[in-house]
Design a protein that fits this description.
Elements: E1 7-8, E2 11-12, E3 15-16, E4 20-21, H1 22-36, E5 75-76, H2 83-90, E6 96-103, H3 111-121, E7 127-134, E8 149-155, H4 162-184, E9 187-191, E10 195-197, E11 209-213, E12 246-254, H5 255-274, H6 282-293, E13 298-300, E14 321-323, H7 328-332
Parallel strand pairs: 5-13, 6-7, 6-9, 7-8, 11-13
Antiparallel strand pairs: 1-4, 2-3, 9-12, 10-14, 11-12
Helix pairs in contact: 4-5, 5-6
Subcellular location: Membrane
Protein name: Globoside alpha-1,3-N-acetylgalactosaminyltransferase 1 isoform X1
Membrane topology: Single-pass type II membrane protein
Length: 333
């Protein structure tokens, strides 16, 4: 059956947008309502376990991405939004966007490149507050910051095992929000430091609770997702559950929702620890478990979380944020 494709044009202060599909118009309406109801908005309620067909990012064609999830959350990719229109919408709101990264042990070597690329591409024209969590504050480089952009170095405890560092991240984020960040930022993104921005990352990514599709599993059946499959784990995902496999390197949203999300993941990690269990992919397993029951209100396509070791597929028009080639064994030793 042929699908009817409708397009609309917006005119804002004399600026005419490029043609946008009707599914984007619905997403835009959701964005406006989200901001108007910022104080009163009730978050999505936890979703009960149910069986339904897996949404497929490449369902329409190998070169065209799905633009809407079954629960009506927009899937953001190049071509689904007008950057100029969003700039007119969001800049008058005087938002502050926070960004957390953990630079522990040898991972401090990535900070220079990460921060320089963020200054070039991340939320350009908006107030930004970088929160650098590190066990070596002296290793944080002095990178020139633009107007309205700030950086805070937050010392954290050293841990001998990499797994311990990973499982404590959600706890640290939730505690930092409760103590400080809730007073300083409107939205908060939590990103991995061993990555680099390659193209603009802007307000199209803002949402109540935001997840990013993992670049390794966007085109495979959910039965092949590396979920935690042991029922004894709090991160357990049953066969037939799951929508997309989300990457732990990118998540975010309104600061209050990120607090709830990180705290929920931390509670699951604590439950596993009490039972002598470590989930298959540590915090990423718990992140995926929670996104199944607490659906993201916005999903970022793999262009916001790419792996540079993979060739760029026809379905991705550009790459915005991607991993750097690295020696993981050396970094974690």
């Amino acid at each position: 059956m042929n699908r009817l494709k409708l397009e609309v044009l917006f005119v804002f202060d004399g600026h005419v947008s490029k043609p946008l599909r009707l599914d984007f118009f619905w997403s835009l309406r959701c964005l406006i309502n989200m901001k108007l109801q910022y104080k009163e908005e009730k978050p999505f309620q936890p979703v009960a376990q149910s069986q339904y067909p897996q949404p497929k990012l490449l369902e329409q064609s190998p070169t065209e991405l799905l633009t809407l999830t079954p629960w009506l959350a927009p899937i953001v990719s190049e071509g689904t939004f007008d950057p100029e229109l969003l700039r007119h919408m969001y800049q008058p709101l005087n938002l502050t966007i926070g960004l957390t990264v953990f630079a522990v042990g040898r991972y401090t070597c990535f900070l220079q490149h990460f921060l320089e690329s963020a200054e070039q591409f991340f939320m350009h024209g908006y107030r930004v507050h970088y929160y650098i969590f590190t066990d070596d504050p002296a290793a944080v480089p002095r990178v020139p910051l633009g107007a309205g952009r700030h950086l805070s170095v937050i010392p954290i405890q050293k841990h001998a095992r990499w797994e311990e560092i990973s499982t404590r991240r959600m706890e640290t984020i939730s505690q930092h929000i409760a103590r400080r960040a809730h007073r300083e930022v409107d939205y908060l993104f939590c990103l991995d430091v061993d990555m680099v921005f390659r193209n603009p990352w802007g307000p199209e990514t803002l949402g109540d609770l935001v997840a990013a599709i993992h670049p390794g599993y966007y085109a495979v059946s959910r039965r092949h997702f590396p979920y935690e499959r042991r029922p004894v784990s709090a991160a357990f995902v049953a066969d037939g559950e799951g929508d997309f496999y989300y990457g732990g390197a990118v998540f975010g949203g309104r600061v209050a929702r990120v607090y709830e999300f990180a705290r929920g993941c931390h509670m699951g990690i604590l439950a596993d620890k009490a039972n002598g269990i470590m989930a298959a992919w540590q915090e990423e397993s718990h992140l995926n478990r929670r996104f199944i029951s607490h659906k993201p209100s916005k999903v970022l396509s793999p262009e916001y979380l790419w792996d540079d070791k993979k060739p760029q597929p026809p379905s991705l028009k550009l790459i915005r944020f991607s991993t750097l080639d690295k020696d993981s064994d050396w970094l974690r030793s």
